UniProtKB/TrEMBL annotation:
This is THAP domain-containing protein 5. GO terms for molecular function: DNA binding; zinc ion binding. It holds the Pfam family THAP. Residues 119-135 have a biased composition (Basic and acidic residues). Keywords: Coiled coil, DNA-binding, Metal-binding, Zinc, Zinc-finger. Residues 321-348 form a coiled coil. SMART domains: THAP (SM00980). The keyword Coiled coil applies. Residues 1-101 form the THAP-type domain.
Length: 356
């Protein structure tokens, strides 16, 4: 089981973070594994494009609304008294979905608006049992009659999560169709355009090189549009209910500052595409690069400097005296060579003269 949280930018479970929290006297947030039938849905909610959530991944409690996390057992004893026991390991409501991602811009993370839960909740099994009994005994509903003995069918044990009543309020789903509003939606700038087909609506923005760098894609079967920055899916926007929501979202996407890369055309493979508050105290102010690309640029520059240094070392500058000395040595070598050749030739001449 992976020990660190799957959410982008979240450090829960990192050794350094555990140490830090311990030093501050805080508890590490608990971890939850996705229920098998919810992996797809959780995946859609998590703004992470490099990897998709697997059965063995975990998410920490920071990404759920507190109402979705059950931290106690509510237990009605045989005497009708309610006891609240702290759970050793908190668990999630069956309807819980991750919706809070504090390490990405806040407008990219919005808790799903849930319908208000009905004030009258389904009673627990124990309570229902009591009520049935009290109705049989003629005791009005709502009052619990004391039980004379421990019911053998409901022994004294805490309820397992599967016994928990299902949350009767499923997340609100609003199917908003953007197509009828297209002509009246105000685009955030002149470089924005919209493309439509029967099942697809794409708002996109062109950069200085006339390439689409920001896209917002609505699919007919899915009310939540996908935001893509330079081809990377960065998030799925939720809670779009009308034309105004679309305009606000487009404005937000328009305001995202994109990373300018390490150098023209070069981006770090870990480029986070957008510039945001990941680094509140940047080394350089007015930076136009993400942290990864800045690091990559520094590496490229260091490499270039080293290469330059090597090139200058290859042709060292010489003093005039050294240059003359070197020339003299070379010429002396040449003279020596020529002298030996001359000697050999003279010897050969003598031999030839004798024979003829
Ligand atoms: Zn986390
Ligand atoms: Zn970058």
């Amino acid at each position: 089981m992976p020990s660190s949280c799957f959410a982008p930018g979240c450090k829960t479970g990192y050794r350094s973070e555990v140490k830090k929290l311990k030093a501050e006297g805080k508890k590490t947030p608990c971890m939850f594994r996705p229920p098998k039938d919810k992996i797809e849905e959780w995946n859609r909610r998590i703004p992470r494009s490099d990897r998709s959530l697997g059965e063995k991944d975990v998410l920490c409690a920071l990404h759920f609304v507190p109402e979705d996390i059950i931290t106690t057992w509510e237990h009605t004893g045989p005497d009708g008294k309610k006891a609240i026991i702290e759970r050793e390991k908190p668990c999630l409501l069956p309807t819980a979905v991750p919706c809070i991602f504090p390490n990405i811009p806040s407008y990219l993370s919005n808790p799903i608006k849930k319908r208000k839960a009905p004030t009258k909740r389904e009673p627990t099994i124990q309570k229902r049992c009591n009520r049935e009994r009290s109705q049989q005994d003629g005791v009005p509903d709502g009052e619990t009659a004391p039980l004379p003995t421990v019911d053998p069918e409901f022994p004294d044990f805490p309820m397992s999560p599967s016994n928990l009543p299902n949350d009767p309020s499923p997340p609100e789903t609003c199917i908003y169709n953007v197509q009828p509003d297209i002509s009246s939606i105000k685009l955030p700038g002149t470089m924005w355009g919209v493309h439509t087909s029967p099942e697809l609506t794409i708002f996109c923005h062109l950069d200085a090189l006339r390439q689409a760098d920001k896209c917002v894609e609505f699919r007919q079967e899915n009310p939540d549009p996908t935001v893509t920055l330079r081809g990377k899916v960065v998030m799925v926007e939720q809670g779009i209910k009308n034309k105004d929501d679309v305009e606000v979202m487009l404005q937000n996407v328009h305001a995202i500052r994109l990373c300018s890369g390490a150098s023209p055309g070069k981006f770090s493979s870990a480029c986070s595409t957008q510039l945001h508050a990941e680094n509140p105290t940047p080394r350089r102010t007015n930076t136009t690069r993400c942290k990864e690309c800045q690091k990559y640029r520094d590496t490229l520059q260091k490499r270039q400097r080293r290469a330059n240094a090597r090139a200058t070392r290859a042709v060292p500058k010489m003093t005039p005296l050294a240059r003359c000395t070197q020339q003299k040595r070379r010429l002396q070598k040449k003279v020596q060579k020529l002298e030996t050749v001359l000697g050999e030739t003279m010897e050969r001449t003598v031999v030839i003269r004798k024979t003829t």
